Model the fold of this input.
Amino acid sequence: MLEPQPGHGPSRELVTGATGLVGMYRLAWRLERGWPTVALRRADSNVDRVASFLEERLGAKFERAWASLEWCEADLSDVVGLEEAMAGCHRVFHAAGRVSFKSGDEAQLKAVNQVGTAHVVNAALGAGVTRLVHVSSVAALGRTTDAGGPVHEESDWAEGVGASPYGVSKRAAEMEAWRAEAEGMELIVVNPTVILGDARYGESSGMVYRRVADARRFYPAGGNGFVGADDLIRVMAALDEAADAGKEGILSERFVVCSEDLSYRELMGWVAHGLGVEAPSKPLAGWMLALAWRGATLWSALTGKPAQLTRDMAKNTRVHHRYNTAKVRGVLPGLSFTPIQEVVKETTRGGLQR
Done:
């Protein structure tokens, strides 16, 4: 076993976005191993749900683990507070971010994802952090692949070609992370597909579960890539460990992380089964979506409220997105993922109420 070194596994780490889905799974991973961890929270963050999640995950280890967890209150706009939270940390796990595809959210996406990441990087450089582990997104990757092939780490980026405001903000955030690498910090970037975790958490990808639970009869005609939150954390830990051992091709690289490419119909059918509700049975036709986004645009113009559905969002639901994971499989021989059907079964076991 490797001895702990500054900037690696068992050393002190700050987790941003600690009350979000990925952050909570990261906390569980570290606390289960007894690794010193600092969790970042905003003033209005729901810490109680983190405690409930960790108690279920850690069982008998929870009390001791919870007592060891250090909470720091700071917003991503607070560079001084961020640097104070990073004091003594050799590594930062940056999972904080905003997910939104709504019209009118562009400024907030930029403020949280791009500017917030810039502040995290500046604070980390000031605090002498050794390694930054950055949770990006496949939305930050290009869509213009040769012959419409699967998206991969080197896919060409072109704003306006399948790029949502969210994707633009995540790509800009990733550029800030690469600035940290240019200034001498170790960097690992992961680009996960849609992350599926405990169904009781309704934000971001958890909304997939709630839409099915609301007995929606229609399903989008397209598809996407999906990965379980446990698998994402496990892959990131394996990348960390391999980098600690000196394996080449991990530091200063980014990796697409995806378990399976699935149709929305298939995924939503599994979710419906897990929640004990009727599965959506009718595809959303193109004309339905056209009417819906035009109606949403008109309503937005009349009320001044953001449109809940845009033309780009409607178009995106009919596309079958596919992803190439050859790179991460190449550096982690023997890597396997939990089938998404099993992920859905496990993550819907507790229903939707928290």
Notes: The longest strand covers residues 186-192. Residues 1-7 have pLDDT under 50 and may be disordered. The longest helix spans residues 106-127.
